[in-house]
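Session log. Operator J.P. requested a structure for one protein chain; no other inputs attached. Running the standard single-chain path with token output.
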Amino acid sequence: MNYREIALQLVDRARAAGADEVDVYLTIGRDFEVTVRNKSIEVLKQALSKGVGIRVFRDHRMGFGHTTDFSADSLNRLVEQTLQMAKYATQDEFHGLPSENHQLVPADTGLDLYDTETASLATEKKIALAKAMEEAALAYDKRVKIVEGASFSEGDERIFIGNSRGFSGEYTGTGSTLVCSVIAEEEGGKQVNYWYSNKRHFKDHPSPEVIGRKAAERTVRMLKARKIPSGKFPVIFDPLIASSFLGSIASALNGESVFRKTSFLTDKLGASIASDLVTIIDDGLLKRGLSSRPFDGEGVPTRRKTIVEKGKLRSYLYDSYTARKAKTATTGNASRSYSSTPQISPLNFFIEPGPHSPEKIIASIADGFYVTGMIGFGVDTVTGQFSRGASGLWIKNGELAFPVHEVTVAGNMLEMLQNIEMVGNDLEFFGPVASPTIKISEMSISGT
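Structure written below.
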């Protein structure tokens, strides 16, 4: 099938049937997963998928529909039914395509999103990767009793967008993930932990043995974890926890929340919201980035944007609809699937690395908490309050002393940003939101 032609024909049909404006989002993809447990294959599956979604605008009323059936009759019905939906939808002056008239975007953008090695890996090789992770984890320490699961997954996706303003674009990307989850036991105590790697290109992964050993190491070091007395202490977030915290900041930067005044960062544009050590970037053009793409879900070209510059807030994140409401320009942060309308989402969103190694950051603390795990959802982006269950390692005289669990760390996110004292040099992308190690001068810890 010529999927580009299908997308553009849908645009033409909807325009001919009376739509003022139209856009079409079409995807085709493939996913594979293998999970090994107890040296046996527990999951082995592959799936192919495709779908197309269409938005039509008539008199500032929007209709949206989608289908996975690409037959001519199905696509004709899709256009007819979506136009009918628009007829009865609520009128909204801000509905419509992006005001920028972006034309054809070249398929080859230099982002290097597609890896032929990932796409051509043999099934035997994928199974061997999962088994190697499990074997490495079990061999690390006799206290590692079970590998809950060692999984390798990979896939690829091709995306087409066309609209009635003359835009036409497509891109293809691959991705693969190695993940290992481990259970360790000692003297009746049990701990569960994991490690993983998530990359566009297969060669960018560490070896499966490294991932298995890292998962085992993170689990074993938490054995005999204890509670600690409550108090206020300096806190270090490791990269995974710092990335989770940064994800909450990204949610508060959502232009829709800011417009509705349901974000603690409302009316903070131009203000110092963080330590001057903190610069936050949103980069849709990062080479091999997990959320890199030449254009967003509305066909707006992506770019690298400084969101926070040395502590000062420079920009929120917008799609075209919210940008019109806020009387500003879209930032190219519309994200969607074929079965959804555009929503605001960060791209490759990260804190720029600083000069300090994690070891130097740990050494800077006489008495404090190195957080490596969190549970719960105690984050309120309206008020900025942060309170989550945490586990990790206690720091004594600049060294990791003993494991800690069943405590709560709490603070206000604005104060947490402003109290960042050190930023690590260990930035690595495990997902589209990433951060190096960060040190916060003081947080409340609730323990015994």
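Operator note: The chain has a mean pLDDT of 95.
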